[in-house]
Design a protein that fits this description.
CATH superfamily of the largest domain: Spore Coat Polysaccharide Biosynthesis Protein SpsA, Chain A
Strand content: 15-25%
CATH class of the largest domain: Alpha Beta
Radius of gyration: 19 Å
Structural class: alpha/beta
Oligomer: single chain
Number of domains: 2
Shape: globular
Helix content: 40-55%
Number of strands: 9
Distance between the termini: 44 Å
Largest sheet: 9 strands, mixed
Order of helices and strands: EHEHEHEEHEHEHEHHEHHH
Length: 283
C-alpha cells in the first residue's frame, strides 16, 4: 500500500500535466500513487497516462462525467489507498524531494495531521516552520493555503468530512474549498503545520483576461466562494465588513485602470452574492 495518494483533477491540459508527472517520476521517494481524475470528454490523456505507467509510476485513470473540481477530488479520495493524501493541480509541479520531505515530516514525533508545503513562486524562500493558528486563520491573517500546498492525513477526512462540493470550480461558489477544509480542521483541533522545506511550484502571474467582461465574470465567480465562507463559518462581523469594504476602496483607487477597477468590483459583487446566497439557503 502506498503511503501517499496524489489526486489530480484535470481538464483540457496535457503539456502541463506531463510536467507534473515528470516531476513525480523524478521523486527521491516513490512510496505514492497517482490518481488522475479525468474530466475531458475525449481520450487525450490516455497516451500520457500509459507512458507514465510504463515509466514506473503507479497511476490510476478515473473518468469523470461531470466537470467539477471538488467532485473529482472527492471521487479520487474514495479510490485512494494512501495513509496521506494530496491534491496537486494539473499545472503545478514538485521539487525532486518534496514527497520524501513531506512523509518524513508526517512521521516526526508531533505527528501533524496537515502539512502545508511552500508554494515557492507565491511565498518565496522561507526557513521558519510554524503551526497555523485558528484565530489568525479565521481572520485571514495566516498563510491561506492553496490546494497544491496541502498534504493531509486520511484520518482528518473521517473526522471532518470531504471537500464541500458547493465550493470550488464547477460548484455553486467558485473558490474557497481548501480554505473551508482547513478552517474546519483547525476548529476541530487538528494540528496544521507550515513546512517550508517541502516545495511545490505553480506559476503565480495570472494571464490577462481577454476583455473587461471576462475580468469581472471570473473575479466575481471566485469571490462568491469568499462570501460564502464568511456566512458558513459565521466569521466575526468586522472581518466580513472588511471583506466588503476593501474591494470597494481598491476599486476607487484604481478608477483609471479599467481592468483593476472591474476586477475589484467583481470581488465586491461576488462576495456579497456568496454571503447572501449562503445565508438565504442555510438560515
Amino acid at each position: 500500500m502506498p503511503k501517499l495518494s496524489l489526486i489530480v483533477a484535470t481538464i483540457s491540459r496535457v503539456t502541463e500535466l506531463e510536467r507534473l508527472l515528470d516531476s513525480l517520476a523524478a521523486q527521491t521517494c516513490g512510496d505514492f500513487e497517482v490518481i488522475i481524475a479525468d474530466q475531458n470528454v475525449d481520450d487525450r490523456l490516455k497516451p500520457l497516462i500509459e507512458r507514465a505507467a510504463a515509466g514506473g509510476l503507479s497511476v490510476s485513470h478515473l473518468r469523470m462525467d461531470q466537470p467539477s473540481l471538488v467532485l473529482a477530488r472527492n471521487a479520487g479520495l474514495k479510490m485512494a489507498k494512501g495513509q496521506y493524501l494530496a491534491f496537486p493541480d494539473d499545472d503545478c509541479w514538485y521539487d525532486n524531494d518534496t514527497v520524501e520531505r513531506v512523509l518524513e515530516r508526517f512521521e516526526n514525533d508531533d505527528c501533524p495531521s496537515i502539512v502545508v508545503a511552500n508554494w515557492l513562486e507565491m511565498i518565496g524562500p522561507v526557513q521558519q516552520e510554524r503551526r497555523l493558528d485558528v484565530v489568525r486563520f479565521s481572520r485571514f491573517r495566516e498563510i491561506m493555503p492553496s490546494s497544491i500546498m496541502l498534504f493531509l492525513a486520511r484520518r482528518i477526512f473521517e473526522r471532518i468530512g470531504e471537500f464541500d462540493p458547493r465550493f470550488g470550480l464547477g460548484g455553486k461558489f467558485g473558490a474557497g474549498e481548501e480554505v473551508d477544509l482547513v478552517l474546519r480542521a483547525l476548529r476541530a483541533g487538528v494540528s496544521v503545520v507550515f513546512f517550508p522545506q517541502a516545495v511545490v511550484h505553480h506559476e503565480f502571474r495570472r494571464r490577462p483576461a481577454a476583455d473587461l467582461n471576462s475580468v469581472f465574470r471570473v473575479t466575481r465567480s471566485r469571490a462568491r466562494g469568499a462570501g460564502a465562507l464568511y456566512a458558513k463559518h459565521d466569521l466575526e462581523k468586522w472581518i466580513i465588513l472588511r471583506g466588503f469594504v476593501t474591494p470597494l476602496a481598491r476599486a476607487a483607487m484604481h478608477c483609471f485602470d479599467r481592468a483593476a477597477f472591474w476586477s475589484e468590483l467583481g470581488n465586491f459583487v461576488g462576495r456579497a452574492e456568496g454571503y447572501l446566497e449562503y445565508r438565504r439557503d442555510h438560515g
